TrEMBL record:
<dbReference type="GO" id="GO:0005829">
    <property type="term" value="C:cytosol"/>
</dbReference>
<keyword id="KW-0456">Lyase</keyword>
<feature type="binding site">
    <location>
        <begin position="137"/>
        <end position="138"/>
    </location>
    <ligand>
        <name>L-glutamine</name>
    </ligand>
</feature>
<comment type="pathway">
    <text>Cofactor biosynthesis; pyridoxal 5'-phosphate biosynthesis.</text>
</comment>
<dbReference type="GO" id="GO:1903600">
    <property type="term" value="C:glutaminase complex"/>
</dbReference>
<feature type="binding site">
    <location>
        <begin position="47"/>
        <end position="49"/>
    </location>
    <ligand>
        <name>L-glutamine</name>
    </ligand>
</feature>
<protein>
    <recommendedName>
        <fullName>Pyridoxal 5'-phosphate synthase subunit PdxT</fullName>
        <ecNumber>4.3.3.6</ecNumber>
        <ecNumber>3.5.1.2</ecNumber>
    </recommendedName>
</protein>
<dbReference type="GO" id="GO:0042823">
    <property type="term" value="P:pyridoxal phosphate biosynthetic process"/>
</dbReference>
<feature type="active site" description="Nucleophile">
    <location>
        <position position="79"/>
    </location>
</feature>
<comment type="function">
    <text>Catalyzes the hydrolysis of glutamine to glutamate and ammonia as part of the biosynthesis of pyridoxal 5'-phosphate. The resulting ammonia molecule is channeled to the active site of PdxS.</text>
</comment>
<keyword id="KW-0663">Pyridoxal phosphate</keyword>
<comment type="subunit">
    <text>In the presence of PdxS, forms a dodecamer of heterodimers. Only shows activity in the heterodimer.</text>
</comment>
<keyword id="KW-0315">Glutamine amidotransferase</keyword>
<dbReference type="GO" id="GO:0036381">
    <property type="term" value="F:pyridoxal 5'-phosphate synthase (glutamine hydrolysing) activity"/>
</dbReference>
<dbReference type="InterPro" id="IPR029062">
    <property type="entry name" value="Class_I_gatase-like"/>
</dbReference>
<keyword id="KW-0378">Hydrolase</keyword>
<dbReference type="GO" id="GO:0004359">
    <property type="term" value="F:glutaminase activity"/>
</dbReference>
Amino acid sequence: KPRVGVLALQGDVREHELVLTNLGADVTLVRRPAELSSVSGLVLPGGESSVIDKLARLFGMQEPIKAAIADGMPMYGTCAGLILLADRITDGIAGQQTFGGLDVTVRRNAFGSQADSFETRVAVPALGTPDMHAVFIRAPIVEALGPRAEALASLEDGRVVAVRQAHLTGTSFHPEVTGDYRFHEYFLDLVRSA
Ligand code: GLN
């Protein structure tokens, strides 16, 4: 059984915990460094990235998470979680930091008020067919990818909404609320082969 964690500082922790448990993983809610040390992979949930960043620093979790990323621990971030894995963000609140690891630039709240939340289908070639039903909630967009990051999915207008780099995966949208858990399976496969 893969032992994985869900970063449980803020956000939709419970949804990811349920998905991962249903997929057969042994799930720990991670709030402290010792809990992070006990898992082989970590999911960063959706929520508010600036709040998760602040709480991570307050709880002494920023450095351990950065170290785990540098050490090759598989991580999967949805929405706010993608923002936290990005090396660069635009439109962060003053002083907002990320853990980094993905060689991308991410814009927060990229769809603005005209499309605060919406659902659409996106092709994810790496996950096969059918296309994925994707739920976007005040979602970020990947504005630029460095050479080490690979786009896994784009909207019809070409904007990138899923990325991977080695052991790190991020999506702008929230598979944990749709019943299509192929990204969670993909993450668990990376944990098993790490
Ligand atoms: N807008 C949020 C942020 O900046 C992300 C929203 C989400 O995770 N659904 O962190």
